[in-house]
Design goal:
CATH architecture of the largest domain: 2-Layer Sandwich
Radius of gyration: 19 Å
Low-confidence stretches: 1-12
Distance between the termini: 53 Å
CATH superfamily of the largest domain: START domain
Helix content: 40-55%
Strand order of the largest sheet: 1-5-4-3-2
Order of helices and strands: HHHHEHEEEEH
Shape: globular
Mean pLDDT: 88
Structural class: alpha+beta
Strand content: 15-25%
Oligomer: single chain
Number of strands: 5
CATH topology of the largest domain: Alpha-D-Glucose-1,6-Bisphosphate, Chain A, domain 4
Largest sheet: 5 strands, antiparallel
Number of helices: 6
Length: 186
Amino acid sequence: MIDGVAGREDDLGDRAMLQATGKSWNEWYEALDQAGATSWSHPQIAGWLTDRHGVPGWWAQGVTVGYEQARGMRRPGQMADGTFSVGASRTMPFEQLPLLDRAVEVLTSALGAEPVATSREAKYVSARWPLEHGESLLAQVNPTAGGRSSVVLTHSRMPSAEAMPHAKARLRGLLDAIASGAAGER
């Protein structure tokens, strides 16, 4: 049995898991091992956690991904379809919709294309751009306290983990560009 998982070693993560689900990370891993879950699909694992143990959906997904990573069934950043995703975020002193507008302006300029979809009515407003080889970039702006908002950029559907560090660095550079313009327009 594995005694820990990268990113899950601190007490806070285990304490939160225990409080939300009634078991620690390692207790869930042991239960899943005993049930034979290493041969199950992602939906089967999440369904077992929810249906048999009453684990709420969001937590069931987290336990499933953590288990898949701990047992070598999925690499960090790997999605259920085998592609990879990486994200970066930053909270900025700007209201949600003006910050989305700024993000769209910066990203459209950087990518040389308009977004294919924009949502301005949802709680978390967003815009999406297609990238080469079926990949995509999502910008989501989430309201926080005090007139601030968090910009989350996600590069999805990358075919390999090797592209992730470069994509992460690019996302951070794009956040820098969004922040520099947003700060000047306050």
